[in-house]
Amino acid sequence: MFAPPSPSMPRALPVEHRAKLLETAREVSFPQGTRLFEEGGHADRFWVIRTGTVELDMHVPGRRAAVIERLGHNELVGWSWLYSPHVWHLGAEASTPVRAYEFDASAVRALGEDVPALGRDLAQWVGNVVTHRLHSARVRLLDLYGPYGAGSSV
């Protein structure tokens, strides 16, 4: 569990930290079409997908929201909870029925303060996810709105 979202991200949480983190989780389900969060909203929780697919999207003025990435099994949904001001930078919607582990952001941040090694590993893990998502957003937006082929050579 808690594998990185792509092979380009080799680091996941160590087993002992995964177990500690899972102690704070609760299992949740979302029907297809459920909005998990909206860009600009307060980021007070996050999820790790067990089954199903979640689409991350970005508001584009004058257009429909652009789907940036599709997330599935063992992927982290939401990273804005870790970094101030704890505001969502993207939106997220269940594109299929989803089962996930849900985590309270305040509890996990407190756990990271109580167990500094866990806090460091969380920051590294989430930082890797942020890096990947920013790259995905750039490529996707170039594919959608840039000159033909602009996102394919990135």
Task: Write a structural description.
The chain is of the alpha+beta class and 154 residues long. The chain has a single domain, classed as Jelly Rolls (Sandwich). Helices cover 31% and strands 25% of the residues. It contains 3 helices and 8 strands. The chain has helices at residues 15-22, 105-114, 116-145, and strands at residues 26-30, 35-37, 45-51, 54-58, 66-71, 76-77, 91-94, 98-104. The strands form 2 sheets. The chain has a 4-stranded antiparallel beta sheet with strand order 1-8-3-6. A 4-stranded antiparallel beta sheet has the order 2-7-4-5. Helix 2 packs across helix 3 (116-145). It is globular and about 50 Å long. The chain starts with 14 loop residues before the first helix and ends in a 9-residue tail after the last helix. Pfam families: cNMP_binding (PF00027). It comes from Streptomyces pratens. InterPro entries: cNMP-bd_dom, cNMP-bd_dom_sf, RmlC-like_jellyroll. This is Cyclic nucleotide-binding domain-containing protein.
**Per the principal axes of the C-alpha atoms, what is the gross shape?**
globular
Mean pLDDT: 86
Q: Provide the β-strand percentage band.
A: 25-35%
The helix count comes to 3
Structural class: alpha+beta
Number of strands: 8
Helicity range: 25-40%
Low-pLDDT residue spans:
1-11
Topology-level CATH name = Jelly Rolls
Descriptive keywords:
single chain, 154 residues, alpha+beta, Jelly Rolls, 4-stranded antiparallel beta sheet, globular, disordered N terminus, cNMP-bd_dom_sf, cNMP-bd_dom
How do the strands and helices of this protein lay out in sequence?
Elements: H1 15-22, E1 26-30, E2 35-37, E3 45-51, E4 54-58, E5 66-71, E6 76-77, E7 91-94, E8 98-104, H2 105-114, H3 116-145
Antiparallel strand pairs: 1-8, 2-7, 3-6, 3-8, 4-5, 4-7
